[in-house]
Amino acid sequence: MHEFLQKIDYxxxxxxxxxxxxxxxxxxxxxxxxxxxxxxxxxxxxxxPDSQVASPPAATAAAAETMVMTSTIPFESRPAATAAxxxxxxxxxxxxxxLMDAWRADGLDxxxxxxxxxxxxxxxxxxxxxxxxxxxxxxxATEPNRVFGTDPAIPPLGRVQAPTGQxxxxxxxxxxxxxxxxxxxVR
Length: 187
Fold this sequence. Notes:
single chain, 2 strands
């Protein structure tokens, strides 16, 4: 009976809510999830030592480099693709304070959500690299953000879809409807 009561006490103690992790703890969890997912997608281990897996800057650099290294991106475009992918991942880590606030507001466990988000960043890395395989970035790009700006799949910033189906130019002149495809999109 005494052993049974001890088991019940242990169970009740383990059911107590865990303290909310700090932002640094969440970043470390996300970094581990990112590295794990990238290693899964790339089917190789990163060169990241175990002591640095929880470091967001190290994880970001290793993840970007590993995915680009195992891709079919032309060799001359790989530095630009690596830099652009690392920038995207850094922006993902910059979103964490906002995400943590949303997780708290929704009553979600920050640790489990951080694990999921780390995997999501790994999936985003794969998607970015697959995009660069189809449309290699300019090897001469000086800023990684300009690489995304030259992607033909992303409309230029100066064009906004108007409610009438026409396109507005940055100067306010509307494009003619003759450019409109059968789906209503302006080409």
